[in-house]
Amino acid sequence: MSRQGKTNIVTPASLRTNIKDSIDKFKLPKKDTSVYSFEGATKANLSGDTLIVDEAHRLGDSTSGRSKSLVEAAKRHKRVILLTGSPIRNNPSEIAPLANMVGIDKAYAPLSRKNFDNKYIGKKKEKRSFMDFVKGVKPGTITYIKNKDALKKNFSNSIDKYMPSKDYYPDVIEKTHSIPMSDSQHKLYKNLVDNTNSDVVYKIGNNRPMTPTERANANTFLSAARILSNSEKPFGGVNITPKVKAIADSVTDKPSKNVVYSSFLDGGLNSLSEELKHRNHPHQIYNGSLNDKEKKAIIDKYNKSKTSTLLISGAGAEGLDLKGTRNMHIMEPHWNSARINQVIGRGARFKSHTHLPKEEQNVTVRHYLSAIPNKSVGVLGKLLHKKPKVGADEYMTGLSKRKEELNQEFLNAITG
């Protein structure tokens, strides 16, 4: 690295220790290498020979200060290396800042989300059913990639496709568990429904795409419903939810290494922690309130144990290198599949299971969804084989899958 001149490394603040440890491990010249958090890099007016950005997907919002700053910083470096396992999370436009940074002398895509979408994202209205007309429901919007030939031409000869061998990675087995709400939980859920726009409720219950206005109105309901799927307490309830009970049952069923992820503390990990304490099951919580020393101690203890239970929040979705994880439990769906894939990547890593017997070199990932109970359809509904309405967890899962399909369609277009 000394022969390569000045190197600036940008990484999330929580991962700076990891980078500095790697610099020491490989005996890199510290005087030629500087490590910045995203916030620090934004203020530093960086310039040098090589710019390396870890977790580069954080630059996807081209309107953010950090993205604007580092796009400009890239122009003041001879080489730019961006590291990420998920270059696109919510929308294909997130590729624009990244592509333009590594292109340096070439603008691959419009930085403006509006201009990008106008050029590459097509929109069409879904077909309306008879009941839509009766209820006066507006047709939802379906998005797709357009101008694929122009996309492919613009990115041609600029992308190499290489799939690494899976020989040293554990197998990942994914399962989905749909857990019916309890009576008390369903009652609280109906209270949320009663205070939500009726068109939004109709679209969610029937798993239908929304208009842009409906999507904006749905955010509050979906966020609250995801919390309620884990815990009644934030809504005045007192009972443990069936989902938390199911996760606790699985974690305590037999000795192994378990990782549980939730985006929420009070409406997620803390509820599970209370139940595990009640069962005298040892566990640790990894969240953003811990300092670097505390975080390192928790991960070291987990990796050295043969059986352990680790609860992680969003702070643990990036940068963790967990060894020998056999089970991962995803408490609720996320707005995008990329976040969940990142979490899974904490436990299914390169050589993370090679110390285990061959039959144990796998990770079972369990996705938990709270579902509307069957009895909500009534006696007549059961006789007519009527299915219960789609719950918020199930709708969120479908929403994130549709985003993933659009993002993959875009990636397929630019990679040929």
From TrEMBL:
InterPro entries noted in UniProt: Helicase_ATP-bd, Helicase_C-like, P-loop_NTPase, SNF2-like_sf, SNF2/RAD54-like_C, SNF2_N, SNF2_RAD54_helicase_TF
Pfam family, one: Helicase_C
PROSITE patterns according to UniProt: HELICASE_ATP_BIND_1, HELICASE_CTER
Domain Helicase C-terminal, first and last residues per copy: 243-407
Keyword Ion transport set for record: no
A single GO BP: DNA repair
GO molecular function, one term: ATP-dependent activity, acting on DNA
Annotated Gene Ontology cellular component terms: nucleus
Gene3D superfamilies for this protein: P-loop containing nucleotide triphosphate hydrolases, Tandem AAA-ATPase domain
All residue ranges annotated as the Helicase ATP-binding domain in the record: 1-105
Keyword Cell inner membrane: no
Keywords, comma-separated and alphabetical: ATP-binding, Helicase, Hydrolase, Nucleotide-binding
Protein name from the UniProt record: COG0553: Superfamily II DNA/RNA helicases, SNF2 family
Organism for this UniProt entry: hydrothermal vent metagenome
